[in-house]
Design goal:
Shape: globular
Number of helices: 6
Helix content: 25-40%
Order of helices and strands: EHHEEEHHHHEEEEEE
């Protein structure tokens, strides 16, 4: 049975009866994923050696998977994701766990074994009971060859963003050429030209040139 931990509740639930654990998991999951997806997700989480933790927002990732020294496996997911992005991220990380179990530790993190596993696990969720109709064609295209991050799929990332709460962030491709933008760490850059799939950005303080994914979220700096 998975040990599904709240953001602020890190204690094991193993001392509880299984019926109460399921109830806890159900109540927890309904805060983070579409309601119709909950039963299938709970089935995927039926593992004694899998821990899922919900974390405060991390700027560099939506979630991650790792094998722990005690031979348990841990998945962490950011708490601030909208329901659809949270579900995609959770299944992404469960696919790492299942691929490890099926193919061993020497496979590539996002290689063909993981891709195949991710596709199989995600298939039951790709229907209008779980996702809005406007997302389904984009998800279907994405899962023909899933990438290491859904953020690299610009059309899908934009479509998912519309379900986020309003915020002051924008994508870098929306910043005007020569406009200044700020990262989460306070560093300010001036936007340059596009190089294939990434944009140049010159750090104002140092003059150093960096490249940014076109759908990196940034904050506009008022001119």
């Amino acid at each position: 049975m998975v040990n599904f931990c709240y953001l602020k509740l890190q204690k094991s639930l193993n001392f509880l009866p299984k019926s109460l654990i399921f109830a806890f998991m159900h109540n927890t999951l309904q805060e983070y994923i579409p309601y119709q997806a909950i039963p299938d997700v709970i089935e995927l989480l039926r593992h004694d050696n899998l821990v899922v933790k919900i974390k405060n927002e991390r700027k560099t990732r939506h979630g991650d998977y790792r094998k722990l020294p005690n031979n348990k496996h841990q998945i962490t997911i950011n708490s601030n994701l909208n329901h659809y992005r949270f579900l995609v991220t959770l299944i992404h990380e469960i696919a790492h766990f299942e691929a490890f179990n099926s193919y061993g530790r020497y496979i590539k993190p996002h290689g063909k074994e993981w891709k195949h596993t991710f596709q199989i696990l995600m298939l039951p969720f790709l229907n209008p009971r779980v996702f809005p109709n406007e997302l389904l064609p984009l998800l279907a295209r994405h899962f023909k060859n899933p990438k290491a991050s859904s953020d690299t799929d610009v059309k899908l990332a934009l479509a998912l963003k519309q379900f986020d709460p309003p915020n002051d962030k924008t994508y870098i491709f929306e910043v005007p050429l020569g406009g200044e933008f700020k990262l989460y760490n306070g560093r300010v850059f001036r936007k340059g030209v596009k190089r294939r799939t990434r944009y140049e950005g010159v750090e104002v303080a140092s003059g150093k040139l960096y490249l940014f994914n076109q759908n990196a979220e940034v904050e506009l700096v008022d001119g």
